[in-house]
Amino acid sequence: xVIEADFYSVRLRFKRLFxxxxxxxxxxxxxxxxxxxxxxxDKSISIYQITSDISPTDDSGKSSEIAGTARYVHRGRVVxxxxxxxxxxxxxxxxxxxxxxxxxxxxxWKKQRWGRMSFNLEEFRHEHLRIEMPxxxxxYEMLRARADPTTLVDVELPELPDNFFRxxxxxxxxxxxxxxxxxxxxxxxxxxxDLLPEEKEALEKRLTRPSTQSxxxxxxxxxxxxxQL
Length: 229
What we know:
Elements: E1 2-18, H1 21-24, H2 30-35, H3 42-45, E2 47-49, E3 68-74, E4 77-95, H4 102-110, E5 113-114, E6 117-132, H5 136-146, E7 150-156, H6 162-182, E8 185-191, H7 197-207, E9 215-222
Antiparallel strand pairs: 1-4, 1-6, 2-4, 3-4, 5-6, 7-9, 8-9
Helix pairs in contact: 5-6
């Protein structure tokens, strides 16, 4: 099936950036918390963040240094927090069907407020792609049917730039794990390009076919001793 995906990159400049947990805790979901702060379920997991490590930088591109500490209001409480001055934060993420249009993405970032902090939207980039991917529900049911108690399959994704490729893998993994957790099963995904040569060779021998830079391996394991629903 063809998935419609939108890829975004934003650069935010904070005059004073505090160590707000909504930015610096669980950093893989920072963009999701900003865009969909009260949403759970399918809409929430449709936002997949490519940026895994949020590292503020100064205007020259060097890592920002802590400028001091000051009082900061977080969730109604006044706390003392370290802060950076004139710090830039870049976030890259993909939207796999949240229902937020590209223009609304831009409008949300143009609010230029993160909690009690203000920022300037220095850069907003958007690219739309159509990606050929397996239907996740059909793929999951196929994995379940084969698992006794485990099964391994390889899936070939289209050739994409690395950040787009990894967001597609992340979206696929998130959806499959959502299905598996409801059935007390586990999903593991291995990206061929990230494996050691001997690891990749072992998987290729097991499945009797070579891999490419776009191959991913998916393993489903049923937890023995639990009833299968």
